[in-house]
Amino acid sequence: MSAKDTHWDGVRLHVVTGKGGTGKTTVAAALALALAAGGGKVLLVEVEGRQGIAQLFDVPPLPYEERKVAVAPDGGEVFALAIDTEEALIEYLEMFYNLRRAGKALTKLGVIDFVTTIAPGLRDVILTGKVSESVRRREKNNKFKYDAIVMDAPPTGRISKFLNVSDEVSNLAKVGPVRNHGDLVMSVIRSPQTVVHFVTLLEEMPVQETLDGIHDLKETGISVGGVIVNMERPAVLTPEDLAAAGRGELDQDEIVRGLKASGLEQNAGEYAAVLAAEAAEHAQRTALEQREKARITHEPRYDLPFLPDGMDLACLYDLAQALRDQGAA
């Protein structure tokens, strides 16, 4: 890993959550690249079964195994794992009860779906358990296999319950392997080596969910990481022009003169009216974003730009660099 100081020295598990539509999977992938830069080895884990990681890195759908998906800047590697709940449960049965054959038979009968439906907490225990195992795993030389793990986690509204598996385990078992496994998982999640990052847009609902999620998570004793503001749009007008546009007071005659000077003389008046309306909308959007940004008092906060041309692999590397520049990795 790079010798550069970061906000998260000593952290090995980065959990990334956010309201749906905020781009949390994209941010998780960018963070994995950022953490791997300079020679690190990072595992990016998906727990929701959407194959979003494969789409971002432009690779075929991921099987239930750890596969290399990217080379990080200045060396380093990113591996990815899409956790399959059924396969993870079979592993769980084999690990604690030596029941792999029984697990496969249960899968054919559809019993696993039934079990995880009537005891949904078990599913979360299995998923978080697989991730915590990756955090603890060591090579033969006793070094950790991965320098960091990044989990693309469930949305903000579910994150506290998802991670606080000790409550779910208490409902499932008071003693025995299930309880012991849950305690081991929580020893990782509640340790200083785990933080939860929140991804948000500068809109009222995502910001409010982020603030509520931070409050709820702190009550569980799980460490909050950073807030990552995604898709922030830059102001394209001066503060004075923004204020005038917001009041509907832009000088349209001046806009007409500018259009004509640019060679757009025909229908310049109509174009000027359209541009003035777009400027007013931009001013309103900018004011909204500034107001919502002021509500985010949690530190550290990282700002990622809006990418008007959409997301591709090159853009993912750009976002990773932006996170590194701001001290996230």
UniProtKB/TrEMBL annotation:
<protein>
    <submittedName>
        <fullName>ArsA-related P-loop ATPase</fullName>
    </submittedName>
</protein>
<dbReference type="InterPro" id="IPR025723">
    <property type="entry name" value="ArsA/GET3_ATPase-like"/>
</dbReference>
<dbReference type="Pfam" id="PF02374">
    <property type="entry name" value="ArsA_ATPase"/>
</dbReference>
<dbReference type="InterPro" id="IPR016300">
    <property type="entry name" value="ATPase_ArsA/GET3"/>
</dbReference>
<dbReference type="InterPro" id="IPR027417">
    <property type="entry name" value="P-loop_NTPase"/>
</dbReference>
<feature type="domain" description="ArsA/GET3 Anion-transporting ATPase-like">
    <location>
        <begin position="13"/>
        <end position="173"/>
    </location>
</feature>
